Amino acid sequence: MLTDKKLSVIVICYNDGGSVREMHRRVTDVMTNITPNYEIVYVNENSPDGAEEILREIAAQDNRLTVINHTRNFGVQSAYTSGLTYCTGDAAILLDGDIQDPPELFPEFVKKWLEGYHIVYGIRARRRGSVIRRIGYKTFYRLFKKVADVPMPLDASEFGLMDRRAIDLISTLPEANRFIRGLRAWTGLKSTGIPYTRAERFSGQTNLTFMDNVRWAKKMIFAFSSQPLEWISYLAAAVTLLSAIGIIFYIALAYTYRQAPPGFLTLLVSVLFLGAIQLLCLSIIGEYIGRIYQEVKQRPHFVVRDIINDHKNKL
């Protein structure tokens, strides 16, 4: 059992009111066997399902529970950033509030941390849920690994442990388009992964639709890869080559038959093809410009309404 180090557990809550009591019970049971010196930091993203009332009730009974209430839902990545900003531990364990990630894996994280790893992340070796969703996740993460500018571990989740060095580094990064898994890999700190099976939600239904997953995929790629911009130049070169071949072909036909071959349909298809290519290239450039626009505004990542059991400002 640890006695000389403090551990923080950061839990993100949005539409997870039905899981709060069970999460608190399981986290408490696990942490009391690891160290008596721990805190639970719950980040409430203005959850509309009554989670705040439950958290206030538990916090009144458990002084180790800190509740950070945001003014609105700023998104998962901003919520994790909030928790990392306010936690006071020598290391922090991050997980979602739906209990899909098992708190019972905490001892394995701590063991690897004590062996000298700055970052220990969970690897989603298996997922519960539909086959199509599982295949989609597996396919995307392998594509993302190939296009990312920094080495990305496969099937890694935010669920994991970061020591104080990693916490302070990631908390001070100013970028608005945050993705904790990517920032964690970007640091280059000594890391390792532990495989686990991700369970179904303990309570309620997922908030993510298919289009939400598409937006997440775009966010990850455009935040950590410049390859889409390179693809534009490759695409332009390919179209130029095809155009050159087409010009040579038409000139050859004109000399052979003494006139250029007629064909309004050919002209229409060519114009539509080139127009589609231009729109695709503009959309890729627009994604990067949109993210630059978000960055230059330099708005805060989150706004705190109030904090229950604020231990950081009491230190």
Description:
With 315 residues, the chain is an alpha/beta fold. The protein folds into two domains: 7-224 and 301-314, Spore Coat Polysaccharide Biosynthesis Protein SpsA, Chain A; 227-297. It contains ten helices and eight strands. It has an eight-stranded mixed sheet, with helices on both faces. Strand 1, helix 1 and strand 2 form a beta-alpha-beta unit. Helix 3 (76-86) packs across helix 6 (164-172) and helix 9 packs antiparallel against helix 10. The longest helix has 34 residues, at 264-297. The two termini are 24 Å apart. The mean pLDDT is 87.
Approximately how much helix is present in the residues?
40-55%
- H/E element string? EHEHEHEHEHEHHEHHHE
Computed over alpha carbons, the radius of gyration is 25 Å
Q: What is the assigned CATH homologous superfamily of the largest domain?
A: Spore Coat Polysaccharide Biosynthesis Protein SpsA, Chain A
Strand content: 15-25%
Termini separation comes to 24 Å
Largest sheet, in brief, is: 8 strands, mixed
Number of self-contained structural domains? 2
Number of strands: 8
Estimate the global geometry from the Cα principal axes: elongated
